[in-house]
Amino acid sequence: MSKPKAAARQAVEMLRREYAGEPFLEEHVSEDAIEQFTVWFEEAVKKIKTDPNAMILATAEPDGKPSSRTVLLKGYDENGFIFYTNYGSRKGKQILANPNVSITFYWPELMRQIHIEGVAEKVSEEQSDNYFSKRPSARQLSALASSQSEVVESREALEKQLNEMEKKFSGGKIPRPANWGGFCVKPNRIEFWQGRLNRLHDRICYKMQDGEWKIVRLAP
Questions:
Q1: Domain ranges, ordered by start, for the chain
Q2: How do strand 100-107 and strand 112-122 relate by DSSP bridges?
Q3: Would you say the pTM of this structure is higher than 0.85?
Q4: Is 199 one of the catalytic residues?
Q5: Which residue of the set 16, 17, 155, 199 is catalytic?
Q6: Per-residue pLDDT tens over the stretch 95-151
Q7: Domain 18-136+179-218: which topology?
Q8: Less Cβ around it within 10 Å: N or C end of the chain?
Q9: Residue 129 belongs to what H/E stretch?
């Protein structure tokens, strides 16, 4: 494999943007981290056209080896942040072995990001059933056809499995796979980052202590 050309390396070094977000000061924030999340998330939904609910989910093996990927937020409340997946997938197995995770929302149009750390646990089967029943049937069938993260022989083999599921459940109710469902990330730390001029960013961090949120400012 050839080494990167010098011009390409230099181009990376020169990639810059100026952050000129509005001030995000202590007097602007809610006392409750979830309420503050709602304020920013609602603004993101209004102003960002594509996937404002996309978030980077970071997990780790029991020995600490990390991995990350993008998933979609599908619900949240005072208990935490919910996404759905195959429990037998790589991330599913990692969470079941080590439930400490982090999730990050990045909205470059708003010059904002939210970083959340917490503990993930399965939602109830009833909640997973309810969400699965609302998915388009094609996505329900895909969940049945795919052994997520497992090696697959070919695209054709995957599509063949999907066709078999389509025939099997043609015209009938499509059941939720037993190994597919939701996780809820219960937060213990939430940081709100607002890009500001000259990299002097605003970072307001909520930490859960004795059942209450403590608010601190972090250096950029």
A1: 18-136+179-218
A2: antiparallel
A3: yes
A4: yes
A5: 199
A6: 999 999 999 999 999 999 999 999 999 999 999 999 999 998 889 988 888 877 777
A7: Pnp Oxidase; Chain A (2.30.110)
A8: N
A9: helix 125-134
